[in-house]
Amino acid sequence: VLFVEKMAVTWKELAVVEGSFASDGWQELTLHSSPTEGHTSLKRLGGGVPFRGSGSTDSATRNRFLIWRAVDGCLELIDISLDASVHSNGVRIQFGSCRYLPGGISITETRNGVNLLVSTSSHVHRFTLPEPTAMMPGEPSGVSMESAYASVLSLFSDPAVMPDYATVEVHWSGNSLEPHAASTWSSPNGDAWFALASLDGNIRVVFLPADSDGRAVQFDLKQTSMMQRLWSGLVPLAMRGSSVSVDAVSSVCLQEIGGDLYALAVCRDLKLRIWSLTSQECVETADLSLFILNDKGVQPSEDQDHVIFSAKGQNSDSVHSFALYLSFADTAQVSVVSVNKSPSGHLLVHLETNSIVQSQNLGKLLDLTSCGSNLFGLWLTETGHQLYHCSSKSSHGWLSVDWDDTLDSGFEVIPAEEPREAYLDHIFKTEKFSRHVIVKALQLFVRTAGRNLLEMPINELRSQVSIAVENQVQKEASSFEIQHEEYRQLQLVCWSRFLEGCKQYAKMDSEPLGLFEDPETGLLCVVKKASISFIRPCERLESTFTHQLSLLDGQSQADGDDASRIVSCAHVVREQMVEQGWSIDLSVSSGEVVQQVEGIAHIILCHSRYACSVCVVCTVWYEEHCG
User: Once rounded to an integer, what is the mean pLDDT over residues 382-402?
Assistant: First the structure.
C-alpha cells in the first residue's frame, strides 16, 4: 500500500483476526452462467461499502459495513459491525466459471434497499437487499451504547431475501471481443446501469430498471465520426492487422455529473472519452498526453492497463474528481482530474494533481482510492504484498504504509517452559491465527480431514492439535528409550513445524484484494482473502520511533532533534538489553541491575548526538523504580 498526501504522516496497518468479523453461518446461492474463454483477468477482487449513518453515534448503522470478496467463481458478502455482533451475516453466491470484470462489482444504498451489482464476462446481475434499519424492529434509535456487543440482525437473516435477483445475458454485436473491464451504477430509485468495455473499442451498456417487471435495455456507445463507424463496423479485425483497436478502452467508470449519467473511458491512445448515456454520443475528449510528466517513456505496459477510479473528495452535483492511473513500460503516474459541467451543458476537464510512480517491481495495481486528502494505492506483486517508497512531483511523494508484521516476529521457548504448552499458548492465545488457519494447518499436519473441526469448541480444537503433534513426536522418536533433552528437541522440531504451517496459511489468507473507505469517519479498510485490516495514522512520537532518526515535517529543528534523540535513547536501551540478555525486575534492586543501568546511561551520555535534556529519562526511571 502506498499513499501520497499533503503532510508527511506515517500510516500503519491494524490487522484484525478473521474470527472478529467472520460469518457465523453462510447462506448459499448458485447461479448457472455459461463459461467463457479468452482474455484473462483478475480472478480475485475485494471491496466494501459503509452504510449511511456509519459516522453518527445515534444511528442504527453506526460503524457498520458490507464487505465482499470475489475469489475463483464465488462471491462472498459479509455484513459486519465494529459495535455489535451481527448474526447470520454471510452469503456465498456461486457464479460457476464466469470471470469477474475489474470494476464490475458495486454495492449502493437506494431509497428502498441495497443494490448489489455484479458484472461477469457474459452476464450482469442485480441483487436487491433490504435496508439495514428494516432488520432492527423496535430499535429505531440504533444500537444501545450500554453494550459494545449488542446483537443485530444482518441483511441476510431472512432466507427469502437472496432469491430476489435479476440476471441478464449480455449480447455483443458483430465480431466484438470479450469484455475485460466494467463499471456499474445504481440510481437512488434502484435503476441499475452496467458498462462493459472490450479491447476493440466497444462499450456495451445494459440498463435494468428498478421495476422487477421492466425489461432490460442494451445498446452500444457509438463512434464519434462516420469514418470510424464504417471502419469498425465493416472492416473485420483481422483485416485491420491487430485484434486490439487503437482507441481500445482500457478502463471505464460510470458517474452522474450535473444530473446526467456519463461513461468515462480511458483509452489506449491516451484519450479520456466521456460518453453521455442519454444521447449515446461521445460529448468530450481530453488528451491525457498533455498531463504526462515524463515524456521519454510512454510506451504502453504489457502487464498493466490504464485505470480510472472515482475519487471521493470535494465533489458536488456539477463537479466530480477522478484518479487516473497511467501505466507505461518504464514508469507510471497518478493524475487526479475534475470534470465540471458548465451551465451550458459542456464538460470541462481540469488537472488537479500529478505524481510519478516508479513502477519497477510494483506488480499489478489492485485498487486506488481516496480518503480525505489522501490517495491510497494497493499493489500485488509476485512475492505478495510489498511496500515501496516512490517519488512524485509533490513535496513528499509516495510513501509506504507499514504492514503489520506480527506473524514474522520471533518465538522462542525458554528452557524453563514446556514446549507443548508454550506453543499452544502462542497459537491460541495471541490472536495471531484464526480458527480457519489452525484447522487447515492441522488437516495438513495429520493428512486427514476427519470431523468438522471448524464447528468444534476452541478448547477441544486445542486438544486435537496437542494430540496430533505429540503423536508425531512419538512417531519420530528413534527408540522407546530416549534422553529427556533429545525428546525436548524433538518436541521443538515438531511444534515448530506446525507453527510454520499456521504462519503459511495465515499469510495466504492475508492476501489483499481491495480497499474501501468510509467518508463519514475517515476509516480505511483493506479487504483480504479471509480477513480484513484497517489503516490508521500514527502518532507523532510513534512515527518517529518507527523511522528512528527521521525528522517530522512542520517541526522546528530543535524540536525535531529532541524527538529523534529520545528515540535514539530508546533504541540504545533496547539494543543493550538484547545484547546483555537481561530484563529488569522492578521488584528487586540488585547491584547487578544498578550497574547495568548505569552502563547504559554512560553510553548515552558519552555520545554527543544523544546528549540533550531528555536524557534525564534514564535517571528518573532509575530513581522511581530502583531507589
Answer: 59
Q: 469 and 431 in contact (C-beta within 8 Å)?
A: no
Report d(CA 334, CA 311) in Å as an integer: 12
CA distance 145 to 147: 6
Q: How far is CA 594 from CA 549, 570, 590, in A?
A: 28, 18, 6
The helix/strand count (H/E) of the chain reads as: 11, 31
- Give the number of other CB atoms < 10 A from CB of residue 602: 11
| Short-list 338, 248, 356, 365, CA closest to 296 | 356
pLDDT tens for 260-318 read 999 999 998 899 999 999 999 999 999 998 888 876 657 777 778 899 999 876 677 77
What three-state secondary structure class fits 280? Answer: coil
Q: Which residue in this structure is represented by grid cell 528413534?
A: 478
Does this model's pTM top 0.90? no
DSSP assignment string, 67-110: EEEEETTEEEEEEEESSEEEES-EEEEE-TTPPEEEEEEEEEE-
pLDDT value of position 587 = 46
pLDDT of residue 299: 76
Work out the widest C-alpha separation in the chain, in whole angstroms. Answer: 94
Contact 91, 156 (CB under 8 A): yes
**In this structure, what is the dihedral angle of CA atoms 528, 532, 536, 538, given to the nearest 10 degrees?**
-80
Q: Is the pLDDT of residue 557 over 50?
A: no
Higher pLDDT, 452 or 604: 452
C-alpha–C-alpha distance, residues 379 and 111, integer Å = 35
**How confident is the model at residue 608, as a pLDDT?**
47
Handedness of CA 270, 275, 281, 285 (dihedral sign): negative
Angle at 380 between CA 376 and CA 381, to 5 degrees: 135
Contact indicator for 350, 303 with CB cutoff of 8 Å: no
Sheet holding 2-4, edge to edge: 364-371, 374-380, 2-4, 399-400
354: left (phi over 0), alpha (psi -120 to 50) or beta: beta
